């Protein structure tokens, strides 16, 4: 079966209008050269066929594809982490308003993490990148800078104080401080922290919000913290140990995934979340929103992140290019029944 | 602050290699014209700078962008529905393997739903589309066909028996039949259905799997079904009414969102899921995976869906174009504690 796949061409317009291709070209580029009735006929054919001068030709003239590359990282199954979905949607909407489309690429787990960038960059398929995984020692930022590829990172350049690229990030410490202070204001004093291993700069940043809030009230944090993997079972185990050894009345966690583990431990022990022991997570996931009782959680302003990233991209891609300073946004607390 | 945004050009290569632009052009297009040492010097400069003949120029020659447009629809907050995230990731990986990138576009709630398609199509920015919302009366398929835009739909053409576009779908009826039969085999006889309103063809299809399985065992479905909105609170209310009026021992739901509502009702009444009353959802969401007890749920083979969609796209974009027949894939059941 044949399928008419090609979009309409200039030749199609010429045939429909019963004129030469040169006449169609003139109608587009030099309409004054044509008689009014001929011009009207060509314009009618253009409208009917939905013809548009080829974007590839336009790109060649402007040296711009109006595409922004984003490596898509899906939520891991078996976790509650799903911020990417909300972030990507905000980004697609905001970028669209500025005339850019988001081009997704994937990098397989076994592959060279830079290959996807290299492929897109060498072929000039994208005008710029958005980099989302700025973990410690991540080579992407340095590599992109070296290739003179414009990019904005969602995440601070943790390992590079002299970074000369724009970035947008959410203040995790402020979010956890907010959560901890919320519990302190409700009378809790023994508030435990369950976070990630020390090599996670994001995790250490979030943890610092807990120590800041506790120390601000002259409360000790000794023996009240646990560092573990970001899995439900790790959160479950860490909560069990802390309950046995430190008797906290509340938990603040670096993720909703860890908070789910804490809730499982409370259930094992017949403790009611929000009544016997309070629990606060981080990311305001779907899971936090639909479980019963609902999980109180720190919510990242991802819509604002998208706006700031697109603003920074527009600066980078203007002439002359402007590198906007880093932007640190403050999260909010979605208060539900658990804390 | 200036920022070096431009990718390397042919002129950059010429300067680095200390040769004319014509020589660089010859090195790429007519290497036999050059002396071996000159060619080597140009190739070295190309390698060092990461220069690649401009993609826009290549696109113009091939009339192809190697981009596939996908309207991104985020999971609604407050629901457990998140199949899109897993689907998009599979799609990006599979399409990448076939030499295509996924270009996302958004359509605001207030806007003309066809505008995003129109913009991309008129500018020839994409080679084809993937359409994901094939609900009853959806004008996209007809509109795209009329514009001769190649597309593959994830979803059957419910309202168009004579559809001449490729489609890939998951057999929702088979999935619900599987779930219901699983409960029947465990001895349940009064199995209730909570699904969507009658105007949802997907919902009616899923429901038909429940009636098929029940009638296959000569069991009545009278009084055991509820049609409602796809929200947690609707599932909660529907379960309360069914428990009062029909005393089911198990629930099969059209979504994990509805199943979460059922679990809330069981909690209200002190009933233990999987022990007192069984519950099965649909979509194998993160929520199903991380709650305790875990929610048994029908799982769509989204990785296979992506493979089949890319296969169909490759057919459409080959010369001559090939329209592959529709593909209906069978889901599996992720069995956990609730059913």
Automatic annotation (TrEMBL), chains A, B:
GO terms for molecular function: DNA-binding transcription factor activity; transcription cis-regulatory region binding. Residues 8-62 form the HTH lacI-type domain. The keyword Kinase does not apply. Transmembrane segments: none annotated. It holds the Pfam family LacI. Keywords: DNA-binding, Transcription, Transcription regulation. Residues 9-52 form the HTH cro/C1-type domain. The keyword Transcription applies. This is LacI family DNA-binding transcriptional regulator. It comes from Nocardioides agariphilus. The lineage of its organism: Bacteria, Bacillati, Actinomycetota, Actinomycetes, Propionibacteriales.
